[in-house]
Write a structure and sequence with these properties.
Layout (H helix, E strand, L loop, with lengths): L2 E5 L9 E5 L4 E8 L3 E5 L11 H8 L6 E8 L1 E2 L2 E2 L1 H8 L4 H6 L5 E10 L2 E2 L5 H11 L6 E3 L2 E2 L4 H9 L4 E6 L7 E10 L2 E11 L11 E7 L2 E8 L5 H12 L2 E2 L13 E14 L1 E2 L5 E2 L2 E5 L20
Parallel strand pairs: 1-13, 8-10
Antiparallel strand pairs: 2-11, 2-12, 3-4, 3-5, 5-8, 6-7, 8-9, 12-13, 14-15, 14-18, 15-16, 17-18, 18-21, 19-20
The chain binds a DNA duplex (21 and 21 nucleotides) through helix 2, strand 13, strand 16 and strand 20.
DNA sequence: TTCCGACAGTGGGGTCGCAAT
DNA sequence: ATTGCGACCCCACTATCGGAA
């Protein structure tokens, strides 16, 4: 289990923290043993050698010393990490099929867990990074993850302006801990806008009120579907909003797009919700959507897709 | 007493693989 | 051939509970 960062809204840091680019890919631990060779594993412990054969090959060409490293496998597109592009390789376990996708991957290394048979997880982060930089010959798909020693609000704004996903702040003197830790903090760039509520889904299990809102925006006079928003509500909001939705029920979908959703309930498109999300997908859906509140001050017919400033806001 | 961390439970987009239709 | 579903990846968020502060 790798060390995991905790999401935070904190933006003020002193010089005991270092900052790395937040990479939008998949977490991969890599172990090399002169006898057993390279072993790539996912966050949940699954074997990934067949998925990223070029990474295995590059790690096999190292000095011959035992090592365990931690990093993120990403697919780069115009200098930005693209999770959607990487997804074409995620489920593949056959190395031939993986390479045949044509999706090139890069393995950004940012930590060292062992070297030459010695456990390095008890060393401070700066020391581990220094050892990592010397131990690995960074070539081909292998890259060292740069970090900066100062940061906070300004650095995050800079990162978001470049279209990055955000930053990871790490305690410079912390040791490597397996699992979730507050010594590593996730600072995300995010965006949000208003959407028209055109329907909802029924709740499941112990859920009250409804499952998710079906939301959209207008384009050329038609209501285009943008996806479901199923989190961000407290119990009271779920029940109160359900009552308002029931009062707006209608038989037909208000959306211009066909929606693959059995059991969808439709409403007159009169409610406007503020929704936070990380980005638009290629299919025009919201990634990582969450409900932020209703906007009673907004005319639903004026809700359109906003093409925001590059990178959004921190 | 209050706060924090960990966990369970609900919800999202997207892809692959396989079974059912 | 198409559809549905679960398993993985990436996640956000709320509610709850027990222990730390």
């Amino acid at each position: 289990m790798p060390m995991l960062a905790t999401l935070t809204s904190r933006r003020v840091f002193d010089d005991r923290w270092v900052f790395e680019r937040k990479l939008d890919g998949v977490r991969v631990l890599a172990a090399f043993d002169p006898d057993a060779g390279v072993r790539l594993t996912s966050r949940t412990g699954r074997a990934l050698n067949g998925t990223y054969p070029e990474v295995v090959a590059a790690l096999e060409q190292q000095s011959g010393l035992e090592f365990t490293v931690d990093g993120e496998v990403v697919a780069l597109e115009h200098g930005r990490t693209s999770f959607e592009l990487l997804q074409q390789r995620l489920g593949l376990s056959d190395p031939v099929a993986a390479l045949a996708t044509g999706v090139a991957v890069t393995y950004y290394l940012f930590d060292l867990l062992s070297l030459d048979g010695r456990d390095t997880t008890g060393l401070p982060l700066r020391d581990r990074k220094a050892l990592l930089r010397e131990a690995i010959d960074f070539h081909g798909p292998l890259r060292y993850t740069a970090h900066r020693n100062r940061g906070g609000q300004e650095l995050l704004e800079e990162a978001c302006g470049k279209g990055w996903e955000g930053l990871i702040a790490k305690r410079a003197d912390s040791r490597y801990a397996h699992g979730r830790s507050t010594d590593w903090l996730k600072l995300k760039c995010s965006s949000g806008q208003e959407f028209v509520v055109g329907g909802f889904t029924e709740p499941a299990g112990s859920r009250a009120g409804f499952g998710a809102l079906l939301v959209g925006h207008y384009q050329d006079g038609r209501l285009r579907y943008a996806g479901k928003v199923g989190t961000g509500y407290d119990g009271r909001t779920l029940t109160e909003l359900r009552a308002r939705l029931d009062a707006l029920r209608q038989d037909d979908s208000p959306f211009a797009d066909r929606i693959q959703e059995r059991q969808a309930r439709w409403v007159r498109p009169e409610l406007v919700a503020q929704v936070g999300f990380s980005e638009w997908t290629r299919a025009g859906r919201l990634r990582h959507p969450r409900f932020l509140g209703l906007r009673d001050d907004k005319d639903p017919s004026r809700v359109v897709r906003e093409e925001p400033v590059p990178g959004g806001t921190p």
